[in-house]
Write a structure and sequence with these properties.
Rossmann fold, seven-stranded mixed sheet, 12 helices, 391 residues, single chain, three-stranded parallel sheet, 2 domains, globular, alpha/beta
Length: 391
């Protein structure tokens, strides 16, 4: 299968220098006191590697930025602030501490998981502190963001109306299972969207759920198997997805899978132990993207870490480039100037295509990168021809 972006690369050719200029320009090495930016996400517990690998990616991108001039001539530096998604009291302690620090100009990742981003939302608004929740993928809990919260990933509300009907038609699906985590804000919110889409497309939906870090899904698997579902839709954190997939496959369920950005995380492949099978998702990163902006980062990451960046590691590096570009556009290095520069950004080059923000909130983007796991459990891009005519 030929690997390629579904959205034409022409959409980003000829754009203003933007973030790519930071990675590929010929500016002087940044000097002076570093601009320290807290990377606020999960750094403890069983999911500690989630934050650690993304922080490493952000630091690699920061080094690339600093070699090309940094932010207004100064180097940027990302450091860890633990806000565990599965321990909200501890997470909120970190949120409030970061918001109170007058030296904090913006918050990187804003808590990571949608549960923490939602909880941090009001605190960041009150502190008038820009907060970039770039790895948050859950449907937002209310109609509007405050002016200080920004996100990046494609969302279920906009991606699945495009992807889900293609999968349903390809496999002639009449009954689908929905497995989600019932104590995690993002999956609960996304489950509502899947219900609406199933009703819209005339598909019977059989629901099962569990809790974060559920060790045993065999009862849920048994229910889906008894209902003869033809497709399994999953909305969970990566570790839970891996556990569910492995137990479903061990239970004799070989149906196609459909999931969100979390399905692309490298923990899924490791945890599923070679049992993923056919699985579709909306992608957030294409390692074959030929733009120097992408390939320079991939090469640098591989040189320093010894492996290619996974999707969420790549998105963290991309987010670091975006932050540097926004801060360089700001009139001054203060919270309000950075927020204004962000809100005014309508076109910026990113790993996920050309995006902008309409004041605040979700990134506005063109097109959707549709991906799947191939027989070797590599994530590959799906060409239009795969879906057949009329899809």
């Amino acid at each position: 299968m030929k690997l390629r972006m579904l959205t034409a690369l022409a959409a980003v050719v000829g754009l203003a220098a933007g973030v790519a200029g930071l990675a590929d320009g010929a500016l002087a090495q940044a000097k002076g006191d570093p601009i320290r930016i807290p990377h606020m996400t999960t750094f403890s517990g069983s999911a500690a590697s989630w934050g650690e690998t993304m922080l490493k990616a952000a630091q690699i991108a920061a080094a690339m930025v600093n070699e090309k001039g940094g932010v207004k001539g100064r180097p940027i530096e990302f450091y860890a602030e633990d806000a565990p998604y599965d321990n909200m009291p501890n997470a909120m302690t970190t949120v409030k501490k970061v918001a109170r620090d007058p030296n904090t100009l913006l918050v990187f990742d804003c808590g990571g998981a949608t549960t923490v981003v939602a909880a941090a939302h009001d605190v960041m608004g009150e502190a008038k502190l820009p907060c970039f929740g770039f790895s948050s993928a859950g449907h937002w809990r209310r109609a509007e963001f405050n002016p200080y919260v920004f996100r990046l990933l494609p969302q279920v509300a906009t991606s699945m109306p495009v992807l889900m009907p293609k999968v349903l038609k390809k496999h002639n699906i009449k009954t689908a299972g929905l497995a989600f985590t019932n104590n995690d804000e993002a999956p609960v919110a996304n489950a509502r969207i899947y219900r609406e889409l199933a009703a819209k497309f005339g598909v019977k939906l059989v629901e099962v759920s569990g809790q974060l870090k559920e060790p045993e899904y065999r009862a849920q698997v048994t229910k889906l198997k008894s209902e003869n579902v033809e497709l399994i839709i999953m909305s969970m954190q990566p570790e839970d997805i891996a556990q569910f997939i492995r137990q479903a496959r061990e239970g004799g369920m070989n149906q196609p899978l459909l999931g969100e950005a979390s399905l692309t995380d490298r923990n899924v492949k490791a945890g599923a132990k070679g049992r993923i099978g056919l699985a579709y998702t909306h992608g957030i990163y294409d390692p074959t993207d030929p733009r120097p902006y992408v390939q320079n980062f991939v090469a640098r990451f591989k040189k320093e870490v010894g492996k290619d960046p996974g999707p969420f590691e790549a998105i963290a590096g991309d987010a670091a480039f975006i932050v540097a570009e926004i801060m360089n556009k700001a009139e001054k290095l203060d919270r309000e100037s950075i927020r204004k520069a962000w809100a005014a950004t309508t076109s910026i080059q990113t790993f996920t295509g050309n995006v902008g923000w309409n004041g605040s909130g979700e990134a506005l983007r063109q097109g959707l990168l549709i991906q799947m796991y191939d027989k070797d459990e590599n994530i590959v891009n799906v060409p239009d021809s795969y879906w057949g005519t009329g899809s």
